[in-house]
Amino acid sequence: MQMNRRSVLGVFGGAVTVAAIGLPVGLANATPEDTMAKIKEFAGDKEPQTGGKLTLNTPEIAENGNSVPVGVSVESAMEGDDMVEEIMILAEGNPNPDVVTFKFSELSGEAIAETRMRLAKTQDVVAVARMTNGDIHMAKAPVKVTIGGCGG
Known about the structure:
Elements: H1 5-21, H2 32-43, E1 49-50, E2 54-57, E3 61-62, E4 68-74, E5 84-91, E6 98-103, E7 111-117, E8 123-131, E9 136-145
Parallel strand pairs: 1-9, 3-9
Antiparallel strand pairs: 2-4, 4-7, 5-6, 5-8, 8-9
C-alpha cells in the first residue's frame, strides 16, 4: 500500500488529536460517592426510601457488558399526588454514572421503562424515582459483568 503525504499527515494528525484529548487511555470510573452526589442532586433534601414502590430489574450476571438489559417500574396510580415524575438510572462503576432519565406524565398510564446499557465492569446499578408528592424511592442491584463493555 502506497501512502501519499496527505494520508500520512491525516493519520498523524488523528493520532495527535486522540493523544491530546486523551480518549481511550485510562478512563477513570465513577465512585459510589459520585453516584451518591447524583442521587442527592436528583432528590434534593429528601431521603430516598428503599424497599418500596420502585422495582429494578437487571440480570444477576451479564455475559456481555456492551448490552445489559435494565427495567424499572413504580407502583403508582399515575395521577394527582401518586404519580411518578422521573426515574433516573445510574451505574456506579462506569466512567460517568448517569445512564438515563425517564420522564413521565399522566398520559404515560404506567411508570414502566426498559432499555439496555453498557457496563464497564461488575458493579451496582441504581434506580431513583421522584414522585409528584416529593417522595423519592431508590433500588439497587448488583450486576456481575463477565466481558467488559466500556473498554473493560
